UniProtKB/TrEMBL annotation:
The lineage of its organism: Eukaryota, Metazoa, Chordata, Craniata, Vertebrata. Belongs to the class I-like SAM-binding methyltransferase superfamily. NNMT/PNMT/TEMT family. GO terms for cellular component: cytosol. It comes from the Eukaryota. The keyword Glycoprotein does not apply. Pfam families: NNMT_PNMT_TEMT. Keywords: Methyltransferase, S-adenosyl-L-methionine, Transferase. The gene is Pnmt. This is PNMT methyltransferase.
Length: 161
C-alpha cells in the first residue's frame, strides 16, 4: 500500500523532462547513457534473433525509446505500465496528440545508428502503427496482465525497471 501510494504521485512529464532532455539526453558521445542504451537495443534487435508477431514491453513507463529498434521486428507491440498516468502519456504519444514529449531526437539517433537511411518520420509512423495496445500490469500478481495475452507474446522486453 505504501509503495502504491508513493507511485500515485509520479509525474510522467517531470520524469521525461528530467531524464530525456539535455543534459541527460546527450547524443554528442556514445559514452553517454542515452546513446549507449539506444545502441544496445539496436544491436540486440539487429541480430535477428529476437523477432515475431507480438512483443510485450514490461514496465514501459512514459517512454518509447526502448521500442524504436524493436518496431522493425514485430507486427504488434504491447506497452504495459503499472501507472495509469504513464499509460495515458503513452496513449497520447501513440495517437500523435499535440503537446506530447518530443521523441524525434531519439528516433533520429536510432535511424542514424541503424544505418538504413530511413527518414525518422517513417520509423515514428511505424512504431505508432505497431504500438497497438497499452495495458495495465502488476508484476506482483501471479497473472501480471490480469489475464493471459491472446495470442501469446513471442518476446518480452523490460528496460530500466
Amino acid at each position: 500500500a505504501a509503495l502504491r501510494e508513493g507511485y500515485e504521485r509520479f509525474d510522467p512529464r517531470a520524469y521525461l523532462q528530467n531524464n530525456y532532455l539535455p543534459p541527460r539526453a546527450d547524443f554528442s558521445s556514445e559514452e553517454f547513457v542515452v546513446p549507449w542504451k539506444l545502441r544496445c537495443l539496436a544491436e540486440t534487435f539487429a541480430s535477428g534473433e529476437i523477432r515475431g508477431r507480438t512483443l510485450i514491453d514490461v514496465g514501459s513507463g512514459p517512454t518509447i525509446y526502448q521500442l524504436l529498434s524493436a518496431c522493425d521486428h514485430f507486427e504488434e507491440i504491447v506497452a504495459t505500465d503499472y501507472l495509469a498516468v504513464n499509460r495515458e502519456e503513452l496513449g497520447r504519444w501513440a495517437r500523435g496528440e499535440p503537446g506530447t514529449f518530443d521523441w524525434s531526437p531519439f528516433i533520429q539517433h536510432v535511424c542514424k545508428i541503424e544505418g538504413r537511411g530511413e527518414p525518422w518520420q517513417e520509423k515514428e509512423r511505424r512504431l505508432r502503427g505497431r504500438l497497438r495496445r497499452i495495458l495495465p500490469i502488476d508484476v506482483h500478481r501471479p497473472d501480471p496482465l490480469g489475464a493471459p495475452l491472446r495470442p501469446p507474446a513471442d518476446a518480452l522486453l523490460s528496460a530500466f525497471c
